[in-house]
């Protein structure tokens, strides 16, 4: 029996009124928010297991748009049911077999094409949370069209040398108290990146933080965690601003 990886109570989140709108892109639905000024810079946000409709992820999309990026969160689950807080963790590995974060290349290409052709985007970055963090790590090894990536608490998987040869600058954010990712795994990632990575990268661990910490809306943050959550958000935005 796996413990709920979201130690924050996802059921008691405050209501969030979104600023963007939903679009259909080929076979994908997506949530898009545009900044108030015109720009040729865009960011793709990859949701976690709770899917593209989860309010916290839409809050992040709107936040990035507020920083001047055309921001989009596509449904990487392609209309299938996301994980819900009432599902049983015993079934999680079966669910993951049908929702593989390494199998997102086709969806990424569809969204990149849309951003370039329909939105006039010239530089495109990517952020991903948890499941999405794993997808970002994968895509930053595979897709040179992504100028920069931020992987937030994506489980570190498969220790093979191909996992470290990133194509463009990538920032890995972790919580110190994340029980899905050990500090040993993070140190190993750092060692391997030193060995194999030829582009800029950064790894940062935020004290006392659990899995899922960086997605919280301001009114859902605990006072002790707030400074670290805000710091992680600032760091994430600064990384994107530096390269995208």
List the main descriptive attributes of the protein structure presented here.
244 residues, 20% strand, AB_hydrolase_fold, Carboxymethylenebutenolidase homolog, 8 strands, Dienelactn_hydro, 6 helices, Rossmann fold, single chain, hydrolase activity, alpha/beta, CMBL
Number of H- or I-type helical stretches: 6
Low-confidence stretches: 1-12
Radius of gyration: 17 Å
In spatial order, strands of the major sheet run: 1-2-4-3-5-6-7-8
Q: Could you tell me the mean pLDDT?
A: 90
> Which structural category fits the helices and strands?
alpha/beta
At the first level of CATH, what is the class?
A: Alpha Beta
Give the quaternary arrangement of the chains.
single chain
The helix/strand series, from N terminus to C terminus, equals EEEHEHHEHEEHEH
- β-strand percent reads 15-25%
Number of domains: 1
At CATH level 3, the topology is Rossmann fold
- The CATH homologous superfamily name equals Alpha/Beta hydrolase fold, catalytic domain
């Amino acid at each position: 029996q796996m413990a709920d990886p979201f130690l924050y109570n996802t059921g008691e989140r405050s209501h969030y009124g979104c600023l963007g709108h939903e679009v259909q892109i080929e076979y994908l639905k997506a949530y898009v928010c545009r900044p108030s000024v015109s720009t040729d810079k865009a960011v793709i946000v990859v949701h976690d297991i709770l899917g593209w409709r989860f309010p916290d992820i839409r809050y992040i999309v709107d936040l990035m748009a507020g920083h001047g990026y055309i921001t989009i969160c596509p449904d990487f689950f392609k209309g299938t049911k996301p994980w819900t807080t009432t599902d049983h963790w015993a079934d999680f590995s079966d669910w993951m077999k049908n929702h593989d974060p390494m199998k997102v290349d086709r969806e990424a290409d569809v969204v990149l094409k849309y951003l370039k052709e329909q939105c006039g985007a010239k530089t495109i970055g990517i952020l991903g949370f948890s499941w999405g963090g794993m997808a970002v790590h994968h895509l930053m090894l595979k897709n040179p069209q992504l100028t920069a990536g931020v992987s937030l608490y994506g489980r570190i998987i498969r220790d093979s040398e191909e996992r470290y040869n990133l194509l463009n600058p990538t920032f890995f954010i972790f919580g110190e108290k994340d029980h899905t990712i050990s500090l040993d795994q993070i140190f190993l990632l750092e060692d391997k990146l030193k060995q194999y990575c030829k582009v800029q990268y950064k790894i940062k661990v935020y004290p006392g933080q659990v899995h899922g910490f960086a997605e919280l809306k301001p009114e859902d943050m605990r006072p002790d965690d707030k400074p670290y959550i805000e710091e992680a958000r600032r760091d994430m935005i600064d990384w994107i601003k530096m390269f995208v």
